[in-house]
Fold each of these.
Amino acid sequence: MYLTMDFEGKTAVVTGGARGIGRGIALELAALGSNVVIADMAEESAREVVAEIKAGGTRSYYCETDVTQQWSTDDMVEAALEEYGQLDVLVNNAGVGGSSGFTTRKKPLVEDWQATFDVNVYGMVNGTQSVEKYMVDRGYGKIVNISSISGRVGRSGFASYAASKAAAINVSQAWAYKLASHGINVNAVCPGLIWTPLWQDIAKWRKATDEQNAGMTPRQIFQQTVSESVPLGREQTPEDIGKAVAFLASDRARSITGQALNVDGGIRMN
Ligand SMILES: NC(=O)c1ccc[n+]([C@@H]2O[C@H](COP(=O)([O-])OP(=O)(O)OC[C@H]3O[C@@H](n4cnc5c(N)ncnc54)[C@H](O)[C@@H]3O)[C@@H](O)[C@H]2O)c1
């Protein structure tokens, strides 16, 4: 049997698809033929991604979604089914670095723990719970969760974000077990260093809280991190993450479930 990477006629929902990595994932899936629902709260940029996808010749739709609310991810799944008649792929990508103002804090407040766990963990649980019954009844589905290399090992720094990303790997494994007998694959992707608004916030946080970084621009802080830590010597891009997600969401990866794939230029080899 020839297993294809063709997503023609399939439908994917990408949470947090309005910008950054989510946009890269959405564009890659669309380039492979998928209808793509952009599920996000940032309407203006989400609509720009929808227009970009449509200009490339595939169908796309914006669904205003707050992943921290179960009713909202329920609406997201219903809207996708109403619009396209089927749902094949869910990418739980929406994420935050902390609560408002985290870039100026030396250590996380309880609000930062709450915000990261609400979006980065409960957000993917909500999305998965909303799609689960439909995928189980159908006996088919692909779920890809976006974790991070910071979820691989605890380090000093913003522990709330890293802990939420570690939880995202564990949650992916739990759902992979639960859904395996129903023809549903659940995997995680752990991106490395991608210059998105989220990393721009992390660089601002390092500049504000670490004297060694005080004289550097946020972009210089990012570039220094890349040159010090990436064996392949370059930053990763949203497209790099999109290609890994597309593989895991395709039937070519039908025998892969419960895995977390580092896409990080070799930062963490495990
Ligand atoms: N940028 C990196 O280097 C990096 C590295 C590892 C992991 N990640 C992870 O990749 C994912 C995407 O990150 P990014 O860098 O593109 O961030 P980003 O800030 O550029 O984009 C995040 C998107 O999520 C959306 N979002 C936030 N809260 C939401 C909510 N409650 N409901 C719906 N949408 C919501 C935002 O509106 C935004 O469009 C995140 O899970 C992040 O933790 C990023």
Note: The chain has one domain: 11-192+236-263.
Amino acid sequence: MADDRVNYDEISRVYDEVRGVDRAVIQSLLNGVDLDASCAVLDIGCGTGNYTDVMQRLMQARITGLDQSEGMLAKARAKNGQIDFRQGDAQQMLFAGASFDFVYMTDVIHHVTEIGRLLGEIARVLRPGGKVCIVTQSHAQIGRRPIAAFFPATVAVDTARYPDIPQIVAAAAAHSLAFVREERLGEGEPTLYGQPFLAAVRARGYSMLRLISDEEYRRGLAQVEAQLAQGDLAVPKAGKTLIWLQK
Ligand SMILES: C[S@@+](CC[C@H](N)C(=O)[O-])C[C@H]1O[C@@H](n2cnc3c(N)ncnc32)[C@H](O)[C@@H]1O
């Protein structure tokens, strides 16, 4: 659910220091569609354009990025001047009906207030037969996030904020977006948490750290600092879920 404490104009200042693309997600997005130069793609909640930029470089299709934060879009436009980046709310898009062949969104759906309106809009702007990929985390994956060991309160915050996979699939079906398949990427893969993670935590650059109490945040930060003072920490990734839909 949208929350005033999560301000992406402000987060845009640190976002690219702490977040980049997940190559496995890019590979799945590319594998899941068959697009040529005549096709149009929409990246909803494109943020600073990390995924939009890489997708534009790797695809022949024309790509548009949509985000509601001008701060995030300013970073995106500076990154790639060949992409049409538009400001707007995904729940009320200005695009004409049947404009896109493929619509995807990465780490956005938990910010959207009404997912029914979002999915209705996606169905409207998609061409018949067009595909959708929603990249998110399931409630089970949220419970297994390494950050939860330091900030346990984030689990309740994010299981309340994120719609779980069956809820997304049901909301999509109500708007004639048929479920195609679910992919889970990266679960249990080892990764290293080091100084970039600490910098992100210090900047409260992960939105859920803005939704826990200051006391919970300070307690967790002290634990992260103590742990990383001994060197990088090897942890298993929680992984991501990709929900594929088709109109
Ligand atoms: C966690 S960031 C993800 C950015 C990008 N997709 C990525 O993976 O790096 C979430 C983004 O969704 C955008 N957003 C949230 N709700 C939105 C809405 N209703 N319409 C458009 N953008 C939205 C925010 O402004 C923010 O840039």
Note: The mean pLDDT is 94.
